[in-house]
Amino acid sequence: MGGPRGAGWVAAGLLLGAGACYCIYRLTRGRRRGDRELGMRPSKSAEDLTDGSYDDVLNAAQLQKLLYLLESTEDPVIIERALITLGNNAAFSVNQAIIRELGGIPIVGNKINHSNQSIKEKALNALNNLSVNVENQIKIKVDSSFLSLYDSHVAKEILLRVLTLFQNINNCLKIEGRLAVQPTFTEGSLFFLLHGEECTQKIKALVDHHDAEVKEKVLTIIPKI
Predict the structure, then answer these.
(1) What is the CA radius of gyration of the chain?
(2) What domains lie within the chain, and their CATH numbers?
(3) pLDDT grade for 37, boundaries at 50, 70 and 90
(4) What is the pTM of this model?
(5) Between the N and C ends of the chain, which has fewer C-beta atoms within 10 Å?
(6) Burial 48-63 (b: 16+ CB within 10 A, else e)
């Protein structure tokens, strides 16, 4: 291969080899850059999860972010949005357990005492969804002041939600009208409050409530207490 022809073959081979190396370089560089960009892509922040644009069911890590936000912020707008997101996710049984294990029930429960009426309502919505899970009911603590939410002067939206909470707990305890279990009502638990004489009398008094929807709700509960 000593003539010009041989030299031509060598040059062609070098060109092909260089081209192949360049293609491999571009491919590898592109893949690395893509991996790097993917790794740098920020995950959704807790506030992003509450903006109404995130439709997926939250996972445990996202729920933990949301609970931290709910516990740490004083902004009523963010609190309300976080409670709405949490309440929506608490409609799923798997998340009912996750929120309990993350210590979320007392965090939500504390918001019932908030001075903002809308926040109070959203907290009760979330608590209602969480209370469908029997194990969660044991964790719900609210003090004797909680019973004041059953007073006739309380806003209709709040009354309907605390009556629903009573129904959820009562329905979980009973099967075909009979007590499925005989739980121990420890003082300070929601069980103790809602199955006490004071709560029973308050609910019965609501049968004369001026709002038809509240009255209808009460009439569905009274035969069960």
Answers:
(1) 30
(2) 57-140 (1.25.10.10), 141-224 (no CATH)
(3) very low
(4) 0.71
(5) N
(6) ebbeeeeeeebeeebb
